[in-house]
Amino acid sequence: MPFDPAAATERFHAMIGDLDFAAIEDFFADDATYSSGKVGGLKGRADIMAAFRRYFAEYPDQVAEDSLIESVSPLAARAVWRLSATSASTGKPLVRRGEETITFNDQGKIVRVDVTDF
Fold first, then answer.
1. Cα 29 to Cα 69: distance, rounded to the nearest angstrom
2. Distance (Å, rounded) from C-alpha 18 to C-alpha 41?
3. Per-residue pLDDT averaged across 68-84, rounded?
4. pLDDT tens by residue, 13-33
5. Over the Cα atoms of the chain, what is R_g?
6. Which residue, of 1, 18, 78, 81, has the fewest CB within 10 Å?
7. Mean pLDDT taken over the chain
């Protein structure tokens, strides 16, 4: 069965929703990159996972919903999402909308995530 990047993205987002950090970490290639206007550029699985852990320590109640996940190439998918959360340190709500393109390698590991906020 051929690799389905949209299905892989859906599984990845479900693991994020479950805060399954071991599974999230396993999705990333060692040399993955993560680019977002909110976090800047991250390089390497260790840096990406440290950022994920910091983010979810600050926003532990995040609820995210995908309105679209589509394959854009044999190894990439685009997801359009929205999320809401509350800052643990300030109590202020966070609401974001955006899209991301997730690129996978031949082994189905994430090699690049590009996030754009709307």
1. 21
2. 24
3. 98
4. 999 999 999 999 999 999 999
5. 14
6. 1
7. 96
Contacts of 84 (CB under 8 A, 6+ apart): 62, 63, 93, 94, 95, 96
The pairing of strands 40-43 and 28-36 is antiparallel
Which of 41, 19, 21 shows the shortest CA–CA distance to 32? Answer: 41
Tokens (6 digits) for 31: 């040399």
How far apart (Å, rounded) are the C-alpha atoms in residues 44 and 1?
29
Burial of residue 24, with CB atoms counted within 10 A of its CB: 0-12 exposed, 13-18 middle, 19 or more buried: buried
Q: Among 110, 118, 113, which residue's Cα sits nearest to residue 35?
A: 113
Q: Flag whether pLDDT at 118 surpasses 80.
A: yes
Closest by Cα among 101, 100, 103, 111 to 28: 111
User: What's the rounded Cα separation, in Å, for the pair 5 and 77?
Assistant: 5
Choose among 98, 56, 82, 79: nearest CA to 7: 79
pTM of the complete model beyond 0.85: yes
Alpha carbons 17 and 23: distance in angstroms, whole number:
11
